[in-house]
From TrEMBL, chain A:
The keyword Flavoprotein applies. It comes from Sulfobacillus thermotolerans. Gene3D superfamilies: HUPs, TPP-binding domain. It comes from the Bacteria. CDD domains: ETF_alpha. Belongs to the ETF alpha-subunit/FixB family. It holds the Pfam family ETF. SMART domains: ETF. Keywords: Flavoprotein. This is Electron transfer flavoprotein subunit alpha. Residues 5-185 form the Electron transfer flavoprotein alpha/beta-subunit N-terminal domain.
Automatic annotation (TrEMBL), chain B:
Residues 23-212 form the Electron transfer flavoprotein alpha/beta-subunit N-terminal domain. Keywords: Electron transport, Transport. Heterodimer of an alpha and a beta subunit. This is Electron transfer flavoprotein subunit beta. The lineage of its organism: Bacteria, Bacillati, Bacillota, Clostridia, Eubacteriales. The keyword Transit peptide does not apply. Gene3D superfamilies: HUPs (3.40.50.620). InterPro entries: ETF_a/b_N (IPR014730), ETF_b (IPR012255), ETF_beta_N (IPR033948), Rossmann-like_a/b/a_fold (IPR014729). SUPFAM superfamilies: Adenine nucleotide alpha hydrolases-like (SSF52402). The keyword Electron transport applies.
Amino acid sequence: MANGVLVIFDQNAGDIRHVVLEMLTVARSLGKGPVTALTFGTDAAKTLPKLAEYGADRAVFWESYTQYSSDGFSAAIAQSFPQFDADVILFPANAWGKDLSARLSEVLGAGLATDCLHLEAEASGRVKAIRPVYAGKALAEVVINTPVQMFSLRPNINAAEVHHVNPEVLDIAPSVDPATFQAVVVERKEAQTGTIELTEADIIVSGGRGMKAPENFQLLDALAAALGAAVGSSRPVADEGWVPHSYHIGQTGKVVSPTVYFAIGISGAIQHLAGISGSKYIVAVNNDPEAPIFKVANYGIVGDLFEVVPRLTEEIKALKAQQ
Amino acid sequence: MKILVTVKQVPDTATKIQIRADGQGIHEEGIKWVINPYDEFAIEEALRIKEKHGGEVVVLALGPSRVEEAVRQSLAMGADRAVIVTTEGSVEPATAAHALAAICQQEGFDLIITGKQAVDDDSAQVGPMIAAGLGLPQVTVVIHLEVDEASKRLRAERELEGASEIVELPYPAVVTAQRGLNEPRYPTLPNIMKAKKKEVRRVTLESLSLPAQPWVTVNRLFEPPTRPEPTILSGDPAETAKELVRLLHNQAKVL
Ligand SMILES: Cc1cc2nc3c(=O)[nH]c(=O)nc-3n(C[C@H](O)[C@H](O)[C@H](O)COP(=O)(O)OP(=O)(O)OC[C@H]3O[C@@H](n4cnc5c(N)ncnc54)[C@H](O)[C@@H]3O)c2cc1C
C-alpha cells in the first residue's frame, strides 16, 4: 500500500521558497515512506541540489508544464498519482498552493486541511494536524478521513533541517497535454524587487495610523534596513494609500509569523492581532500606555514613535557594527 | 449572464471567540453575524457584471435559519433572488462544496463567484472544489476581472505573495474574490425594502443525498498559547531605545 509523502510546490527560475524546505523536513518527520518532491516548469530540475540537501528521497520534474494551470496541473497529478506511492500530500499554504490543493482535493476525493501549523503522525500512520481557525483566535486539531490525506503548510512556522540524500529522479510523465489546459497564467507581474515577502520575513517592521503621514514611513524603512526586515502596515494606512496594499497585515490581509514583529503606532485592534499572533516576539512602540497592543507584546516602549524610532535605528546599527 | 454568488454568514471579525468547554465548537450567544467580508466583493462584482452585460444574480447560501439575514442583505445590495441549503449542524468544506455544486447544477449559470475564503474556518476550499466538481476552470484570489462576452472568456488578475499574475480562461468558470477587486456598495433603504419581497428558495441538505462521511473531522478546538507577561519600558526615548535593543539582543537573543 502506498505510504509515502508527496511534496508539491512551485519554483521560479530554479529558486524555491523557504517553506518548501520546511515541508520536506515535516514530510520526513512523519516517519512514513519515501518523500517525493514534485515541481513544474522551466528550470524545475535546478531545484535538485536543494532537494538533496533537505532530504527528498525522490524528485519528479515536469518541465514541459511551463505555464501554471490549476485544472491542467491537477489533472496531471491525478493521472500520475498511483505512481507516486503516496498517501499524504503536502502543499505550501501560499496563493499557488491553496489554489491547486483545493482543486486537487476534489479531483482525488481526498480531504484537505488548509494552512496547517503542525503535523504529527499517529501510531496508525494517519496524520493529525493543528490549524488556526477564526483567524488564529482558536486552534483546531483535525484529522482527514479519506485514504489520501492532504495538508497545506503555513510558511515560517516549522524549522527546515538539512538532511543530505541523493534523490532518485523519477521519470513519471503524465499524458495530459498543455494544449488542453483551460485556465492558464499568461503573465506575471513582480512587485518591487529586492523587498522581502512579508509571509516569509524573519523580522517585520510595521506601521499604523500613528505614523501620521506617508512620508514618515521613511523612518520605518530606515529601521527595517538596519534590521534586514520587511515593512508592513495596519489596514487603514494601506486603505489610505500611504503604503501599497501588499503591506496590509491582519485578518483581511496577510497573516505573518516572523521571529520579531515591530508594531509602531498600531493600536492592536483584534483584526490586526489576528494577522500577527504567530509572531514569536511582538515589540510595540505606542504613546498610549492603554493601547491593546501592549497586552500581546513581549516588549514595549511607551513613547512618541517619532522620538523612539530614529534612536532604535541608531542603537541597532551600533549593535550590528559590533557584530 | 447568469451569475451565482455563494454567501457564508460568519461572526463579525471583531468577535472575541469563546470555545465551548467540550471543544466541539464556539459559544454563539452574543455573536454579531455578518456576510463573510470576501463574499461582499463577490456580490459586488456579480452586480457590476450584471449592470454591464444584463442577466441575473442569484445568491446561494448554506446554514441554519439565521443565515437568512445575510441572504436578505445580499438581496438588498441588489441580487435578484436566493437559494438557501438549510442545515443545523456545522458543515465541513467538502460537504459545503458538494451541496453548493448541486444547487449550481440545478440552477444553471454562466459564472460562479465566491469569496477567496470564509473568515471563520479559513479553509479557502469551497470555490476550487465547486469548480473541480463541476469540471469548470477556476481563478482564485482575484483583484481584477474582465469579461469578454463575445469570446466567452475571462481575463483575471490574481494576487500572489509579492507578485500578481494574469490568468485567461473560458467561462462558465469559478472566480474567487479578494479584497481590492472592488468597493462593495451599501444597500439603500428602498433596496432593503425590496429585498424583503425577493424570492428565497429553501432546500434541505438531506434532500441532496450527499455522502454522509465527512472528509475532514475537527477533533477539538482549543485556545492558542497565551503570550508571556510583557516588559514595558517608559521614560527617556534614548534610554528606552537602548534598553530595548539590549533586551532583544541579550534576553530574547533575536538580534
Ligand atoms: C471587517 C474588518 C476587517 C478588518 N481587517 C483588518 C486587518 O486585516 N488589519 C488591520 O490592521 N485592521 C483591520 N481592520 C481595522 C481595525 O479594526 C482597526 O481599525 C485598525 O487595525 C487600526 O489601525 P491602526 O492601529 O493603524 O490605527 P489606530 O487604531 O488609529 O491606532 C493608531 C495608534 O497609534 C498610536 N499613536 C499615535 N500617535 C503616536 C505617536 N506619535 N507615537 C506613538 N504612537 C502613536 C495611538 O496611540 C494608536 O494606538 C478591520 C476592520 C474591519 C471592520
